[in-house]
User: Which sequence fits this backbone?
C-alpha cells in the first residue's frame, strides 16, 4: 500500500517561491471527540485580551483549530477570517485523498468495486454527514459538479416559464455568477432579462432587505412569477434571509422556491426539508472546507423525486445503480436526488469533502453553531465598543443575531483600502469588496475569541 511509507504524515502542501514564507511544518495531533458543553461569552463581555483568552479557555471546541493547516506569517499562525471564501485545509484531507490514489494504484478501475472504500458506493459515506448540516433527508441530497453548474441544472427543472408565468424574483446584486445564470436561463427560454428578472432592493438608505419587502414583491408579481431564487446568506452583507417565509410566499403564488446556499451551508442552521424548499445548491469550499473548486451539493425536495413530469437533463450517473451498467437504451432514474447526477463522480474531490465533513461530525454541527453565535456576539460587542461617535465605520451585517451567520461586513468611512492593505502584513486575513467593505468571518472550527479581540484592536488603532 502506498501510504504505509508514511509519506503523507510529514508532507507539507506543495509550495514554491514567495509562498514558502508562509509555510511552517504543522503537527497533526488528533483532537478528542467533543462531548463537553460549550460555554459561550458571558453576560458581561469585556474589551480585553485577558477576557478573550479566558473565553477561549472555556471553549470545549478550541482544540479543533489544531486539525487545520493555516498560513503562517513571521513564524506565527495568521488569523484567517476567510472561511467564507476558501475554508482552511483539514489535516486529514491528504490522507483521505491518498487513500483514493492508493486504490487507483492497486486496483485500477476495479477500485470502483474493491478495497475498503469502493468508489461506487463512496458517496454513501458522505451523504449522511450532510443531512444535519443541510436539514434534509439523505435521498434529497446529491453531491455533484460545481455550484453554478448545479444552479443551472436545477433551473432546467424548476424554471419552466410559460408566456404568462416567466418571472424570476431574486435579491438585488446577487452574486455575479448567479446573475449570469439567471440571465442566460431567461434568454434560453426566449425572454428578456430586463423584463423577466425582478430584483428586490433594500429600502433607500439601508443595506438590508426586509422579509416584508421580499414577500410584497412576490405578491405584486403574483401569477407572473415562475421562480423565486434567493441566497440563504447574502455574500456582501452577511444577511440571513428567511428561507421559510420566502418559500411560503413563493408557493402561495404558485411559483417554485430555490436557494443558493454558498454562504449558508456549514454557517447557519438549515431545515430545507421542513421549510418545504423546492431545490437548493451550494459549494463546499467555503464554510465546508473541502478544497478549492471542490465538488458541490444540491438538494431536491422529496415531493419532486418521483415526479416524472419534471424536465431534467440526464446522464448515466443519474440512472438507478441496479441497472446503470447494463447499458440500456432507456434512462431509469435513481429514486433519489442522485437522478440529477450526470457524470462519474470525481472521487478524489469527494474524498476531500468527506475528510472535512468528518470533522464537522466529530465536533457536532449544533455545537459549532453555538460557538459561532458566541464568536459573532463577541465580534459585534468589540466592534461596537471601538466605534463610539464619531463613528469610523458602519456594520452592514444585521445586529440581530438571528439574521446573520458568522460573517461581518464592515463599511469603512475613510481610507478603507489603506486599512485593508495593512491587515495582511499584520497577519490578519480578511477580504475586500468594492467600494469600501472589509469582510471577516470568524468560523467556529478554527477561529478564536483572541483573534477577534486582536482584529478589533488592530482596527481601533488603524482608525485612530
Ligand atoms: C461562491 C459563490 C458562487 C461561486 O460559484 P462556483 O460555481 O462555485 O464558482 C456562486 N454564487 C454564490 C452566491 C457564491 O457565494
Assistant:
Amino acid at each position: 500500500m502506498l501510504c504505509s511509507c508514511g509519506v503523507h504524515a510529514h508532507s507539507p502542501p506543495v509550495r514554491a517561491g514567495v509562498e514558502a514564507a508562509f509555510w511552517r511544518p504543522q503537527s497533526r495531533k488528533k483532537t478528542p471527540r467533543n462531548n463537553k458543553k460549550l460555554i459561550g461569552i458571558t453576560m458581561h463581555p469585556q474589551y480585553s485580551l485577558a477576557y478573550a483568552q479566558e473565553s477561549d479557555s472555556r471553549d470545549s471546541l478550541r482544540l479543533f483549530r489544531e486539525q487545520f493547516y493555516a498560513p503562517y506569517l513571521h513564524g506565527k499562525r495568521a488569523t484567517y477570517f476567510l472561511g467564507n471564501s476558501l475554508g482552511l485545509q483539514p489535516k486529514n484531507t491528504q490522507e483521505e485523498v491518498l487513500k483514493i490514489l492508493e486504490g487507483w494504484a492497486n486496483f485500477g478501475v476495479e477500485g470502483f468495486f474493491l478495497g475498503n472504500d469502493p468508489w461506487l458506493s463512496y458517496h454513501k459515506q458522505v451523504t449522511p454527514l450532510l443531512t444535519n448540516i443541510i436539514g434534509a433527508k439523505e435521498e434529497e441530497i446529491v453531491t455533484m459538479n460545481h455550484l453554478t453548474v448545479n444552479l443551472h441544472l436545477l433551473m432546467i427543472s424548476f424554471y419552466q416559464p410559460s408566456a404568462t408565468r416567466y418571472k424570476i424574483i431574486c435579491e438585488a446584486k446577487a452574486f455575479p455568477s448567479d446573475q449570469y445564470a439567471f440571465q442566460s436561463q431567461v434568454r434560453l427560454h426566449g425572454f428578456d432579462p430586463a423584463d423577466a428578472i425582478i430584483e428586490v432592493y433594500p429600502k433607500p438608505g439601508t443595506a438590508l432587505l426586509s422579509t416584508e419587502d421580499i414577500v410584497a414583491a412576490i405578491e405584486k408579481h403574483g401569477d407572473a412569477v415562475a421562480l423565486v431564487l434567493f441566497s440563504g446568506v447574502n455574500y456582501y452583507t452577511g444577511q440571513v434571509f428567511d428561507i421559510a417565509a420566502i418559500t411560503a410566499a413563493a408557493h402561495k403564488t404558485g411559483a417554485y422556491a430555490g436557494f443558493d446556499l454558498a454562504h449558508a451551508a456549514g454557517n447557519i442552521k438549515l431545515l430545507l426539508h421542513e421549510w418545504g424548499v423546492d431545490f437548493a445548491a451550494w459549494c463546499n469550499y467555503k464554510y465546508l472546507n473541502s478544497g478549492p473548486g471542490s465538488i458541490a451539493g444540491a438538494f431536491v425536495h422529496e415531493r419532486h423525486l418521483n415526479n416524472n413530469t419534471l424536465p431534467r437533463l440526464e446522464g448515466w450517473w443519474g440512472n438507478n445503480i441496479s441497472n446503470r451498467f447494463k447499458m440500456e437504451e432507456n434512462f431509469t432514474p435513481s429514486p433519489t436526488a442522485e437522478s440529477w447526477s450526470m457524470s462519474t463522480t470525481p472521487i478524489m474531490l469527494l474524498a476531500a469533502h468527506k475528510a472535512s465533513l468528518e470533522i464537522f461530525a466529530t465536533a457536532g454541527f449544533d455545537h459549532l453553531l453555538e460557538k459561532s453565535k458566541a464568536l459573532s456576539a463577541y465580534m459585534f460587542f468589540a466592534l461596537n465598543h471601538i466605534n463610539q461617535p464619531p463613528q469610523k465605520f458602519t456594520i452592514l451585517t444585521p445586529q440581530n443575531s438571528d439574521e446573520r451567520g458568522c460573517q461581518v461586513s464592515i463599511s469603512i468611512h475613510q481610507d478603507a483600502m489603506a486599512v485593508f492593505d495593512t491587515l495582511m502584513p499584520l497577519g490578519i486575513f480578511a477580504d475586500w469588496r468594492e467600494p469600501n467593505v472589509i469582510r471577516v468571518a470568524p468560523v467556529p472550527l478554527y477561529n478564536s475569541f483572541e483573534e477577534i479581540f486582536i482584529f478589533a484592536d488592530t482596527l481601533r488603532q488603524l482608525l485612530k
